[in-house]
Amino acid sequence: LLAGFAALLRRVTGQGDLVVGTATANRGHAAAEGLIGFFVNSLPLRVDAAGDPAWKGLLGRVRETTLAAYAHQEMPFARLVEELSPERSLAQTPLFQVALVLQNLPVRAAGLPGLSLVPVPVDTGTAKHDWMLTFGEESDGLAGTFEYATELFDAPTIERCLGAFERLLGEVAADPGRRISGLDLLSPAERAQVVREWNDTAPVGVDEAVQMAFARQARNDPAAPALQYRGLSWSYGELEARADRLAGHLWNLGVGSSSLVAVCLRRSPAAMAAILGVLRAGGAFLPMDPDDPAERLGRVLADSGASLLLTEAGLAGALPPHGAKTVLVEEMLETPASPVPPEIPDPLHLAYVIYTSGSTGQPKGVAVTHGGLSNMVRAQVGLFGVEASDRVLQFAAASFDASVSEIFMALTSGACLVLEDREALRPGPGLAAWLEAEAISVLTLTPPALAVLPPAELPALRTLIVAGEACPPELADRWGMGRRLWNAYGPTEGTVCATAVLHLPGRDRLPIGRPIDGVHVHLVDEGGEPVPVGVTGELALGGAGVARGYLGRPDLTAERFVPDSFGEQPGGRLYRTGDLGRLLSTGEIEFLGRRDTQVKIRGHRVEPGEVEAVLAAHPAVEESAVVVRDDGPAGRRLVACVTAATQALGLRQELRAYLEARLPSHMVPAEIAVLPGLPRTSAGKVDRRALTDLLTGGAGAPGDAGDGGGWPPANPLEELVAGIFAEVLGRDRVGADGQFFDLGGHSLMATQVMSRVEAVLGVELPLQALFEAPTVAGLAERVAAAGPGRRRPPAIERLPRPRKGEMPLSFGQQRLWLIDQLEPG
């Protein structure tokens, strides 16, 4: 049973190192067998389910673990917790949060003449652990109960887990040689639902490339406004004519099917004509942001192998040396060119390449096909209801894939695409006023950008799309009133958008929705098998939106783009995103974060490894690590921690300037900390979690010398509480930021602290208060906030005044003596 339970936990949590609790009768001696009393002890069983063991192998590991644990079953659990001193929390029990108990001791009436003993089940209304599975032997088999925390799980989830547990045991009984990864957790009906029913989406518009859809709009209504940039406006007919002129020049320069053309232009109608012209000539465009550092632009050009660079006179001289032929777009627009022969591009041909952050320090180019782009645009136009009367803002930078969605949602639906310089679009009051003045009706923003916009009426705005990173429900509630707010999700490798959901007010968490047309989304485990509803899995994208791969990176492409074992199309592939989520019972998906260190900053993907690689190239840096700090309303920030051979003044400023010259602005850390050393795990790797705690003022915050010193108490009440902490913990002193459990405290000591608080300060607080506010300052705040009903006259023993030359008995008693003298009676 324990091995099967461990196999289930291994599959649903992805963890190979598991601790499962059990109960022991603690009557190992004959003299204890006849005693009446509760001697039960809790026994944590550490199960090694790492790797992908066969069932026989896992069973052997569990047997050894169990026998070794029972050999030490008399060790009191409370003593074990005291010795190990784990981080304590009211949300869970220490050491283990799941338990498996086998009640195999029959109820006997031996030694109790005249008494009949009958077990009576008692429902306490509380769960002792997150999960507790209890079995008892009966004449016809095993009967069990599953106790669970209802704040964490609902009944359907538990029923699914029980069904998976039963199927798992049946499979290993039939074939003990099966590996854990091969055990099927889903019933046939469940598999059909998560694999087929919730991915029943058909591709749309893949045979009509976006430039063809644009041309159709231009033929149908050539006078309709296509672009607006400040006082300049181009109709669909004017934009088509200029795009065709550019296409003719590019055709004469040798641009053809899937030729890659770099486009480095400021926001302008000419930039839109250039992108359309490249596609019209049969090529693929590589958008580059002229605001990026020159060094990065040079690396992208070199890595892409683009043979042609479309730019403008004001930018050409600022670009680094490169091997591409430079062509000025203004000269091409002024010179007539012969028309390009009509051609229908293959859906599998290359449409564009966008570079994203790379974990190895080198940005990587994602190659997207015409079919994927066309499907995404057609699906979004239909889903978001974009119409010819709409005014769509291009908010995203050209090198960010959201710009592709904004541009072609507008130009393939007959809407007007509104352009503006980046400075005017900085989120804030100015942007809100501009949106209202320009009557923008369709807007795509990242949650951080939306969060800093002041409340505004914006009567024209009817469709708001938030994407790029997780959106807080309260933000969606605030901006979703009176309009349709869509929460969208999609990586660059999935062609911008993979899922979307229309926000409904009042949700505790905002899901990312269900797959859009033509896209399949599977939640899979490490082995690529689908996970049940409610179980965390990695999002794997299939269907028309899957990109071709990474440009010039066949090894990385093979690693992340894997065969689609669920699809029916020959040669189909899945993109393993690295994003974690879980399926809800409605079929919607809830986003849960990343399985690696990749983060989103202002909607942009950032691989900390790329920032670390750039830092490591600086001659003063010995070692570097980049982590994310969540500043709440201020959003997420990158923080770089370095060790350096020199502590020279101005090193932080020097490193910042160094990074700004090599990385886009969203990849430059908000803070740079120069530390004497980086925390390490037992394996010798940088402990990023400890580093994050250090930066956010956790247990190892700067100023905590490890002796409980920390920041000094700020007032007499904090001094009193610090004295109590020091007395109970046996320390010389404890600072205001001293964390009771991190300094060696445990639950028994916690009761002493609260008893001292009641006796010394006359304030009666529950033990829970110390778990909720475990620092000196936090507990002092709880004491100060206690109502009059919780106060009673303190029973403080009057201490003798210290004579000259004598030290007080303790830090705490010294402060108590001072207060007694200042406040007689």
List the defining traits of the structure above.
825 residues, five-stranded mixed beta sheet, 31 strands, 32% helix
Strand arrangement, largest sheet? 2-1-3-4-5
Number of helices: 26
Our estimate of the beta-strand percent is: 15-25%
Task: State the secondary-structure class.
Answer: alpha/beta
Radius of gyration: 32 Å
> Low-confidence runs (pLDDT<50, min 5 residues)?
698-707, 792-825
Please, what is the average pLDDT? Answer: 87
Task: Specify the biggest β-sheet.
Answer: 5 strands, mixed
Total strands: the figure is 31
Tell me the overall shape.
Answer: globular
Assembly type of the shown chains? single chain
> How much helicity do the residues have?
25-40%
Question: How far apart are the first and last residues' alpha carbons, in Å?
Answer: 64 Å
Describe the protein.
It is a single chain. The chain has 825 residues and is of the alpha/beta class. The protein contains 26 helices and 31 strands. It starts with a helix and ends with a helix. Residues 698-707 and 792-825 have low confidence and may be disordered.
